[in-house]
Amino acid sequence: MNIVKDIGLYSLLMYRVFVKPDRGRMFWKQLPKELEKLGLASLPIVIIISIFIGAIMTIQTKLNTENPLLPTYSTGLVTRDTLLLEFSSTIMCLILAGKVGSNIASEIGTMRITEQIDAIEIMGINSANYLILPKITAFVLMMPFLVIFSMAIGLTGGYLVGAFSDIITTADYLLGIQYAFIPYYVFYSVVKSLVFAFLISSVAAYYGYNAYGGALDVGKASTNAVVNSSILILFFNLLVTNLMLN
Fold it and tell me: What angle separates helix 2-17 from helix 127-164, to the nearest 10 degrees?
């Protein structure tokens, strides 16, 4: 029954969020701040993780597929498709669910327990729309850029393996990442990232908005937001993959 209750409350909250802003000027004033806080602030972790994962995948693929019957470009091909299809969209979003999701849930949850949201409601402002819509909009707008950036950095990490080691030559690697390239994979990953960005931001906002009690409840809301958004990412990953790649 808790699941049914949560779905109902979440749906009602989203209905309140996606209405025309009471004060459009405040929305456009808040949006750039959220773009910087949720999007640009996530760039360092995206860069660090992507470059190391790209390098590690290249090394592991090369070392575990040493077979004279396999073409030399297979390592670059596997690294590219793994980054494009799964890592830069799904795995990166799971990581960002921990960073961005907990940030949104704790920020809104703190506003709830300190009665700032109640004060906004008393002033006759739709607090759900005022607080949550800029966050969801900003994260959904930034996520495709983060995903594409992750793809590029991940492929660069693999190239650095070839440049600074004798595990694979850069010529073989570059041939692999160019061989039989399917642009649709990038579109597929971007579509997935949009879905995941909405799930992360909206679920985190829901748990933060409904956090009642004290500081301990803010922590619980943050944990619930990360766990449940991660589960939903995995479920919708399966759903979107079946719809777009079948």
Answer: 100
Largest CA distance in the chain: 73
| 203: Cβ contacts below 8 Å, ≥ 6 apart | 10, 101, 225, 228, 229, 232
Alpha-carbon separation of residue 158 from 50, 66, 153, 224 (angstroms)? 10, 17, 9, 35
Number of domains in the chain: 1
Q: Are 227 and 124 in contact (CB under 8 A)?
A: no
At 122, the amino acid letter reads I
Give per-residue pLDDT as tens, 202-211.
999 999 999 8
Residue 40 DSSP code = G
Prediction pTM value: 0.91
* 244 contacts 186 by C-beta, under 8 angstroms: no
115, 15 Cβ separation under 8 angstroms: no
Q: Classify the C-alpha dihedral 181-184-190-192 as positive or negative.
A: negative
Measured CA to CA, the distance from residue 213 to residue 121 in angstroms comes to 18
Residues 70-117 have pLDDT tens digits of 788 888 899 999 999 999 989 999 999 999 999 999 999 999 998 898
Residue 184: burial class (beta carbons within 10 Å; 0-12, 13-18, 19+):
exposed
Q: What are the residues whose beta carbons fall under 8 Å from the beta carbon of 243, sequence distance 6 or more? A: none
Q: What is the pLDDT of residues 134-184, one digit of tens each?
A: 999 999 999 999 999 999 999 999 999 988 888 888 898 999 899 888 899
The fraction of the chain above a pLDDT of 70, given in percent, is 100
- The domain in which residue 11 lies consists of 2-245
